[in-house]
Amino acid sequence: xxxxxxxxxxxxxxxxxxxxxxxxxxxxxxxxxxxxxxxxxxxxxxxxxxxxxxxxxxxxxxxxxxxxxxxxxxxxxxxxxxxxxxxxxxxxxxxxxxxxxxxxxxxxxxxxxxxxxxxxxxxxxxxxxxxxxxxxxxxxxxxxxxxxxxxxxxxxxxxxxxxxxxxxxxxxxxxxxxxxxxxxxxxxxxxxxxxxxxxxxxxxxxxxxxxxxxxxxxxxxxxxxxxxxxxxxxxxxxxxxxxxxxxxxxxxxxxxxxxxxxxxxxxxxxxxxxxxxxxxxxxxxxxxxxxxxxxxxxxxxxxxxxxxxxxxxxxxxxxxxxxxxxxxxxxxxxxxxxxxxxxxxxxxxxxxxxxxxxxxxxxxxxxxxxxxxxxxxxxxxxxxxx
Length: 386
Fold this sequence. Notes:
Layout: E1 2-7, H1 20-30, E2 36-45, H2 47-53, E3 59-65, E4 68-76, H3 82-104, E5 109-113, H4 118-128, E6 132-136, H5 140-143, H6 151-160, E7 163-166, H7 169-179, E8 184-185, E9 208-212, H8 221-234, E10 239-243, H9 249-258, E11 265-269, H10 273-282, E12 285-288, H11 297-304, E13 309-312, E14 327-330, H12 334-346, H13 353-364, H14 366-385
Helix pairs in contact: 3-4, 4-6, 8-12, 11-13, 13-14
């Protein structure tokens, strides 16, 4: 099957981890040698990212990686001008889609990731008769903060899609109610060949929690620090390691000092994937303190490494931590999170790493998720060709 993926996020020089799960899914699809898979991504870059990287590099870059032909178009984003971003993305993506079709032929279908790249999917459907499926990932719909100027675009994208997908069960319910059409649940994928059980013994004796997330309001690291301060009162030998960066990083560092937990908290900055894997293999448990997640890829990555997780109930994790044998869900407050973390420390020996990994493989591995997607694709293409 010939599959073209459209995305508004993808790894670039400005952010190596942005949209990395889109790339994972594309490469997973391409492992089936009967599939021809390509990606066209139009990626807006913030002025902050330009200044931070001290890099001015925009335009088209073409690569082939693991049998996936990829075209990434980067452009400078104008803050808060949402229509510009979507219309710029639409214009440039259509040029790239037309060029791609001339060179490689018409795809059987388009898989769109995120409504913000959806106008080009609608255009391609009208002009070339290519059906499309959309997977939505954005927390904007849960928080109900979609910009008023973008709501008509989102509505059109979802209404005209042949199939609509959401990445967790609660999120699918929200989207179905909001737009009056069915959203199927198909989760994100984890590469279980990369996220594996730890082949080496743990390097330290402290009980170590690990968190990987952008330092933004939605990830709620200040509450995590408050919870960890309570944990240290009971288990002073514990440690918390935080990977990531973002606008709230400095204030979070200062808050750690204010709470007098900074000696037990490590700020690691942005880590490449191989370092994330090492951290997960060395940690005792992963902890997620988010206010809202449509899914929670980091949780399934941790489970794939055989490590239990502690997470706030924030929509996505409820479709992942479906058994007490793999982790603990808690309410979104410091006291409940601290209680869950303490229980994790005190009952850690009861967790079985092989069983935890099996939980991830059975639900989120390449084979399982890609088979679900291929069933959807086959149905769409069969109807399109009828």
